[in-house]
Amino acid sequence: MKDIGIIIILLTTLISCQNKSETKGYTINGIAKNVPDSTTVLMYLYPKAFVVADSTVVINEKFQFEGSLKRPRLAHLRIISSKDDRTFWLENRKIDFIGKKGNFSESQIIGSKTQKESEILLKRKDSIFKEMKKLEAMVTDSNRDSLFVIYQKMESVVVDINKRFVKDYPDSYESLTQLNWSKERLGSDETAKVFSLLNEKLQSTEEGKSISEFITKNKDLQVGDIFIDFEQPNIDGQMIKLSEIKGKYTLIEFWASWCGPCRSFNSELVEQYELYKNKGFEILGVSLDTNKEKWKKAIEKDGLTWPNISDLKGNDNEAAMIYGVRDIPDNFLIDEKGVIIARFIRGEKLKKKLKELFDNNTGL
Questions:
Q1: Which of 93, 111, 129 corresponds to the end of one domain?
Q2: What kind and span of H or E run contains 127?
Q3: Is 8 part of a structural domain of the chain?
Q4: Last residue in a domain, options 155, 190, 217
Q5: What is the number of other CB atoms lying within 10 angstroms of the CB of residue 133?
Q6: 312 within some domain
Q7: Same structural domain for residues 184 and 100?
Q8: 206: Cβ–Cβ under 8 A, 6 or more apart, which residues?
Q9: pLDDT tens profile 216-258
Q10: Across the chain, where does the E strand assignment appear?
């Protein structure tokens, strides 16, 4: 009987320990050097990057967050008053955050396995990122188009680094995130190959499902291909098809209300639309918004009088998946035969092309 009692006690202790392990969450022990007492630190968790998940205050240059996650998530800590911020991988572990006022972006993160993997990848990209920053600093209105071609080649190098990282770390959430970011540049076939390297758990996540949907829907369209039709609702809920837009030349403009560069380009699109709409120029705006009201206000404020549609799925917009759009603004110019004749055409390049097509009447 004593032996049975001892076994029961041992089993009870073991089960208790297992339960504690399962419910164990995260603790962020933060050091914020030179940050005054009572300063508020906000925490955001992706994908809800605009919703405050938690907040705390700094006392004696220290702060703390506690909670639990079902899986590793990218977290973003921010001090509004000083504009200090830092994004890192948060998971159910004890994590030390060591930063100082004015330099939170360089804060040291200790204890997160996924963050360590992320830093390995960042180190692999360090040299190409430095070259990309140099190129960005050289951009002017006159050389923007030529430098953009070089920049795209650099981005291809980054994507290749991501592919090798997925192969090396198939169990990492960083691999999942980078593949989700790279899928439009890889195209459906190559994405499928890399996706197969990830473990089944990662493939079944929300990002994994998004990648899987992209593999199914993406058509990897290039200049010279025939357009692929799609249909989405406008702001009033009326369904509009691309094929219903009747014009000699139609610009599919991918944008969003929250995209600064998109909004700045809208004024030039309004100008060009007014010049050529009576000659056969049409625009179909496709928004990567998720908030209908913000989308509606942006349309009204920017004076967009052409058809605008959206399925309000953000980056998972079905048309964006078909056309392989991730970074916006982006666009495709289609002729009356349905052939894609240009992509990412704007600024002086767009003005020159439209003048050539409509004023000079010389075709291509």
A1: 111
A2: helix 113-138
A3: no
A4: 217
A5: 9
A6: yes
A7: no
A8: 47
A9: 999 989 999 999 999 999 999 999 999 999 889 999 999 999 9
A10: 26-33, 40-45, 48-57, 62-67, 73-79, 84-90, 94-100, 108-110, 231-233, 239-241, 249-255, 281-287, 308-309, 330-335, 340-343
